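pasting Sulfate adenylyltransferase subunit 1 for the record, 495 residues
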Amino acid sequence: MTAQANTALAAEILEVPHAEAAAVIRDSRPLRLITCGSVDDGKSTLIGRLLWDTKAVKEDQAATLRRDSGQQNDLGLPDFALLLDGLQAEREQGITIDVAYRYFATDRRSFIVADTPGHEQYTRNMATGASTADLAILLVDARAGLLEQTRRHATIASLMGIKQFVLAVNKFDLVAYDRAVFDQISTDFKALALSLGVRQVTAIPMSALKGENVVYSARSVIPWYEGPTLVETLELATLRSGQSTGFRLPVQRVSRPGESFRGYQGTVAGGAVKPGDSVAILPSGQVANVKQIVTFDLVRNAAVSGDAITLVLDRQVDVARGDMIVSLDAQPQTGLAFDAQIVALQPDGIVPGKRYWLKAGSRRQRVQVEPVQQLDLKSGKWQSADMLQMNAIGKVHLSFDETAIFDPYELNRGTGAFILIDPDTNNTVAGGMITAKRTELGGLNAHEGRVILSLPADLAEQLLATELLANRRDEVETRRVTTSAARQLLDDIDG
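structre below
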């Protein structure tokens, strides 16, 4: 890449300003972050060092760490990775297998950090950690530069909606603090970040083991670096907003402790609600007003994203588990076909034409998945694909039997994400994010000749009890719908 190109690239990346800490104003909201990258890039050591230098390690833990560390390095330092590798297999192999969450704090804010595995076979665990994070720390071994697994994790993190990256160029002491090495890795990564739509990147040269530029500045050994330390960057990071869509309450349970009370329980997945607000119940489309908001210990004046509540409406409506109560004036998308991006998580991959269970929140539906493209992690380009192998990142079409309810993932993580379950094994085979509603119908009805029958409930039960259908019961969807919902379903089929 030419010097001119580098200059242009740097101009498009938003560098986080290095602000001097003046008066300490503590942010009460914790920042959730992940560390990711390839194996042996030092993820667990970095978090261990963060815990150690922010005084989050208790005295008895420190004594145990010193006792168990042995001769792990020639610097006489503890093996900080042992603070994260809790499983016996992790300690024996020196790798991270499961996601480990830790808490630490500074004078300015608190943090919840997830140490995710670097091995490709544990990609599903990395995706799990990224799904709730506000920021990702991508570690790179300064001696090796960007690897395929680094690109994979950066891609998954961006797909999960993370828009703030810290590039930790680790083990910088092992390249003699060479500025040219740092500049080359930073330039390569920023080009990757731009291709993923990520514009907020802070690159930091550091040694996690020595604690250089982690909590304390390494100005004495890296005098040319004038940027922030890792902790200073984290203190200035922003939280992802959950208010970009209207009110969303996926109904998990209908509470009826007596004849005088009927409430709908769940965790608010977006927006806010207060008594008197008008809401719609999807997919039926019924409308009601909020009468009361109840939690386990009090009656509330309002509820916001993340609150676990019981919602009481002002009239009798038909609401069941899996329905969604939403703002009347800001509703999610409904339809029979959506586009999505997924990460395949099982050895069998995603088989085209096979029918899976799709679970989103409290709602589970039959779905057919049609792979369209797969991301080539070496070239960074999307290529046509007929199926998706394990750990592949792909674009797919989803076709449903009955009306699906989603927001685009970039607007709402809670109502835009889903998992795919293999009905034969009950294994989770993929995690995915909705990107858009499809305008044309490519669903099961069109390709498999399936039909929708509207029958009286007693007749439907008799039909399902026959020997002919008993053996194919799992293929039959049943649901009580109102006239308006049936009309919506027909509208969706008409496209």
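Residues 1-11, 441-449 have pLDDT under 50 and may be disordered.
The chain has 13 helices and 23 strands.
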